[in-house]
């Protein structure tokens, strides 16, 4: 990001617009996104115990539903996506997010990178939220795990706001990396 872009984002999230993205900006961004989330979370805490109790076992495809996304502009490797499979508990919320993003950020949806994938977290041994169908990746090429957000990763704050309004956590803002990743947890 340019200094001017950092200043604009700092102004939007309510912190001193000094052009430096550091601990104060990170905390302000997280606080700002939390303020957009529903007062009562619909989602579990990210502990394996909470995830197991709420979503069930990773890889349990009986909990998945198909969500029609035809006409929303989702593309995987440049090819139109007609439906996605996700956990039945996140389906309505995820559809609302995708409908909103189709209007505001179709370019991001054109870089859809997946929801359900029965795998472990990258670099770890615990199941990913993707293994429960409760996470989505968008614009992976410019928002990778190793890229710092918002310094080198490019996920727009406005996309994170749309997810936050549904209570989803934006990895870029809360972890400082992996800005492609959004998950239905607290």
Structural account:
The chain is α+β, with helices and mostly antiparallel strands. It has two domains: 1-36, no CATH class; 42-183, no CATH class. Helices cover 35% and strands 14% of the residues. Strand 2 (75-76) and strand 3 form a beta hairpin. It is globular and about 50 Å long. The model has no long low-confidence stretch (mean pLDDT 96).
Identify the notable features of this structure and list them briefly.
186 residues; 2 domains; 7 helices; two-stranded antiparallel sheet; globular; four-stranded antiparallel sheet; single chain; alpha+beta
Write the layout of secondary structure elements.
Layout: H1 3-13, H2 23-36, H3 48-55, E1 64-68, E2 75-76, E3 79-80, E4 83-87, H4 91-104, H5 106-109, E5 112-114, E6 135-138, H6 157-165, E7 169-170, H7 171-175, E8 181-183
Antiparallel strand pairs: 1-4, 2-3, 5-6, 6-8, 7-8
The helical percent reads 25-40%
Instruction: Kindly give the count of domains.
Output: 2
Largest sheet: 4 strands, antiparallel
Instruction: Write down the Rg.
Output: 16 Å
Low-confidence stretches: none
Question: Could you write a compact summary of the structure shown?
Answer:
It contains 7 helices and 8 strands. It has 186 residues and is an alpha+beta fold.
């Amino acid at each position: 990001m340019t200094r001017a872009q950092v200043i604009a984002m700092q102004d939007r999230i309510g912190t001193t617009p000094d052009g430096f993205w550091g601990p104060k900006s990170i905390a302000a961004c997280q606080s700002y996104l939390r303020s957009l989330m529903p007062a009562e979370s619909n989602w579990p805490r990210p502990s394996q115990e909470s995830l197991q109790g709420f979503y069930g076992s990773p890889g349990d495809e009986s909990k998945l539903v198909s969500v029609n996304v035809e006409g929303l502009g989702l593309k995987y490797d440049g090819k139109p996506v007609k439906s996605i499979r996700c956990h039945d508990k996140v389906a309505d919320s995820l559809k609302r997010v995708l409908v909103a993003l189709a209007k505001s950020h179709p370019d991001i949806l054109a870089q859809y990178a997946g929801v359900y994938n029965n795998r472990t977290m990258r670099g770890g041994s615990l199941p990913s939220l993707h293994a429960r169908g409760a996470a989505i990746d968008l614009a992976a090429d410019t928002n990778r795990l190793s890229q710092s957000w918002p310094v080198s990763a490019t996920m727009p704050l406005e996309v994170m706001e749309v997810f936050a309004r549904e209570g989803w956590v934006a990895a870029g803002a809360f972890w400082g990396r992996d800005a492609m990743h959004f998950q239905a947890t607290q």
